[in-house]
Amino acid sequence: MNVSKYKALLAAVDMGSFSAAANSLGYTQSGMTHMMNSLEEEIGFPILQRGYFGVKLTASGEKIIPRIRELVNCEDALFNEIEILKSYGDNIIRIGAYSSLATHWLPSIVEEFGKQFPEVTVNIQTGTVEELYSGLESGRFDMVFGTKLAKYGFKWIPLALDKFYAVLPKGYPLDNSDEFRLSGFNGTKFLMPGLGFDDDISAVFQENSIKPFVTQTYVDDPAIISMVEHGQGISMLSELIISDRKDSAMFVPIAPAVYRKLAVALREDYTPTAVAKKLLSITKDYVRTVAVDNTVPSD
User: For 50-62, how does the pLDDT look when each residue is reduced to its tens digit (9 = 90+)?
Assistant: First the structure.
């Protein structure tokens, strides 16, 4: 199986053009066209429509493209793992992390860990919730720094509660209050943050019977804030995310207070090594000193 053909296919689909995909991958356009024709012959049915619009998937192509993405991602993960083992052997701890935790907490944690175990490499990768927790399930990560979500059956090490704030445009009416009532999200145009916040926020809405008009987004936190600033809706982000930001949007405490549960996830069958246990111990000590809310969530 020639995975390079599938990578080329994904590039063509994502860019909507053979020429753009060829340029990005270093192929000629004729070479790209020949490769796609060859791939369709191997598969046995057309997967691409070609026209003045460029290229797009056929109905059959739409059905198989998720599996093709999985295949390409698996190959990339395999070669990444091989390179890590070539470089570091088994003396490595592989961490998946929400970008907020990778930005605000993990640098200090890994710095302290490195002072005690300079011979151990800590490899950190960020991603979406699905990418991180599927990576944990497959063994790609030893642990994931994220939030405790009921739909995943991992062992959870609670860290802290991270308070949610309403993200509002300047001048948004607050009824002479310094807080935004949770019920105030009802019926509003709500910009649902992507990259994992949707799981935590959806749980808050469901538990409190809140029903906004949700616009799903697939952008990062600064983009959400910018969208709010430009009047496209309101949103919700956690204290860890907004703590260092200086935007023109308002970050208003929600009443009653709602939180996401920050935690480290481990596979049920994973037994941490001695150095991994030490990393977790350093993590707990660090969180006790800096957590946005020092209340450790109970199981």
Answer: 988 888 899 999 9
